[in-house]
Amino acid sequence: MSEELERPSQPVEDDTQDRALGESAMVRELLGDAYDNVRCFGELLREQGGLRGLIGPREVSRLWERHLLNSAALVPHLPSTGVVVDIGSGAGLPGIVVAMMRPQLRLVLIEPMERRTTWLEEVVERFGLMNVEVRRGRAEEYHGAFEADVVTSRAVANLAKLTRMSMPLLRRGGEMIILKGRNVASEIDPARKALRSFKASEPELLSGVTVPGVEPTTILRVRRG
Question: Which residues are recorded as binding S-adenosyl-L-methionine (predicted)?
Answer without folding.
Answer: 88, 93, 139-140, 154
